[in-house]
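Lesson 9: reading folded outputs for more than one chain in a single document. The general rule is that every protein is listed as its sequence immediately followed by its structure tokens, and records are never interleaved. Here is the first one.
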Amino acid sequence: MLEHGIKPGLSASVSQQTMARSEDVPREGFELGTLLSTGILAAMVAESSIQLIDPHLPPEYFSVGKRFEVDHEAPVLGGGTITLQIKVKEVENNWIRFAFEGHDEKGRFCTGVHERILIQRNKLFDIAYERAQE
């Protein structure tokens, strides 16, 4: 059994400036790139969760994303500051489930769930190489 210090209730609030325009949402004739995209939001949630739990992991471990689920409640224009509130909701050995909310100056714009798996660094690459050889 993996020993770590990650417990339900562990939480953080992270604020970040968003890009005024994102090139990751190409749409012909429609300016979705001026809005905070799901991809950018997912990356921000993943990074925030990693920063939250990494200090509690043994040195030979890291976490990998398993699941990301978001409910968009309102569009957010790029160029402003958003705050993510992320909290560990469940822990089962090497599986961690987070709940998160996103807020901007107008209020909450999203809620969601993110899951990460804790794994030994070398084990992850062993699994990937083994799978590639099949």
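And here is the second record, again sequence then tokens.
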Amino acid sequence: MKMKIKVCQTHIDEGEHYSCRNCPVALAVKSHPTVKRLGCEEHVMVSTSRIDIRWLGDEYQLPAKVKLFINQFDKNKIKKVKPFSFEIKLRS
């Protein structure tokens, strides 16, 4: 099963630079209906060094475009990042 994550402009506007729990990607994951239904929003952490999402002890690999987005958001505050989406494959 795959989970499609949509990083919207709201996530970008409310995201915090250099924050593993409140960057736009983490906010998008936290707002996904599956995450909300499971009540595990506080367990979401995005890391560019490991490129994963920690969620109730599981790690999910993120596509390279997500790492690039996070790096652009954190380090290049002049260039605006744009909304995008990606998928992560959930464990059965």
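What the second record shows: The chain has one domain: 2-89.
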